[in-house]
Amino acid sequence: MKKTKTLAASAAFLAALGALTACGSSASAGASATPQNPTSLVLALVPSQDQSGLVDTAKPLTDYLSQKLGIPVTGVVSKDYQAAVEAMGAGQAQIGFLPSLQLWQVSDKYGASVVLQTERNGNISYPAQFMTNNPDKYCTDKPVERDGKLFCNGADAMKGPAGLDSITKVKGAKVAVLGPASPAGYIYPILALQEAGINTDTDIKQIPVTANDASVLAVYNGDAEVGFSFWDARDVVAKDTPDVGKKVVVFALTDEIPNDGVALTKDLPAAMQAEITKDLEDYSSSDEGSKVLKSIYSITKLAPADPSSLDVVARAAAKLGLS
Fold first, then answer.
1. So where are the chain's domains?
2. Cα dihedral across residues 303, 115, 305, 192: positive or negative
3. Are both 2-122+259-315 and 125-258 of the same fold?
4. What topology is assigned to 2-122+259-315 in CATH?
5. Within 10 A of 282 (CB to CB), how many other CB atoms are there?
6. How far apart are CA 29 and CA 38, in angstroms?
7. Whether the Cβ atoms of residue 127 and residue 231 lie closer than 8 Å to each other
8. Residue 241, burial from CB neighbour count under 10 angstroms (0-12, 13-18, 19+)
9. What pLDDT digit, counting tens, does each position of 102-114 carry?
10. Residue range 51-75, pLDDT digits in tens
11. Quick check: helix, strand or coil at residue 270?
C-alpha cells in the first residue's frame, strides 16, 4: 500500500512538472549525448515541515538564480520525497534540494551530481530524535532543560547516539512515523528499533504523519506516545505551541545522519553546474540569502559536498530494503 501511494504521488508530481517543463529545458533525459544549455530550470523542493507557502518562501532564491543564470527558474514543491528523485531522473527538474537518502538515490540511479551540502550552526550532520509525552516511562534519569526544552538519557549532549538503551520500552506504543524515505522520520529510528530487537511491523502501532513538525504535534497532542523527527524539530512548532519543549521530551538520539543538500542533473552542462553551484554557495554566504535559506530549511550555509558521506545512508537504506 505504501509503495502504491508513493508511485501515485510521484506520478502526480511528474505530471505537474511536465506542464512546467514542456516548453522549458532543451536538455531532457537521454535527449542528447552532449548536455545542452537549457532555456529554463525547475528547482524541486522537498518539505521537512508543513509545505504550505514553501514556494513563496523560496521565491527570492529562484528569483536570484533566474537573474544570475539569465533564464527562468521555477520552484516546485513535492509532497513525496521520491517524487523529486523521479522528476530529476525524468529531466523534469534540474535542481533538487533533497534529504540525504534522495541525494544518494538520484546520484546512484540517475547520475546526478551532489554538489552542495547544508550546514546548520556549523554542523554537517544531525541525529534523529525519539520524543515522548511520557518521560516517566522512557527517562532513566531526571529530564534536564536546555534552551527551554527537556532532554533525558544523555540526549542533551545534542550529538548522537544517545539514550538508545531506552528505546526497547517503545514496544506496544503508538509511534508517529514519517514515510519510509525520510532519514530522520523513518530510516534511522526504525533501524535503531530493529537493531534493539523491536519488530517495527508488529511491536508498535505506527501513526503515519506527513512531516517532522506533524510528528512533534502528534506527540504534543497525545495522538502518539512516541515520535521521530530531525533534531530539534520542536523549534519548528514552538511559535504556535510555546510549551512544546516541556510537554515533548527527547529521550534518545540515533547515529548521526549526513545533512541534506543540492543535486544537479547530468543533463546540465558542466559549466552550468559549476555556475549554479557557485551561485548557490555565494547566495548562502550573503545576509539576504542566509535569511531566505534559513526560512526554507533552517540552513545557515551551503558548503561543497562530500559524496562519500552518503555511504552511511546507502548502507542503512539497504538494510531496510529502501535502496
1. 2-122+259-315, 125-258
2. positive
3. yes
4. D-Maltodextrin-Binding Protein; domain 2 (3.40.190)
5. 13
6. 12
7. yes
8. middle
9. 999 999 999 999 9
10. 556 667 789 999 999 999 999 999 9
11. helix
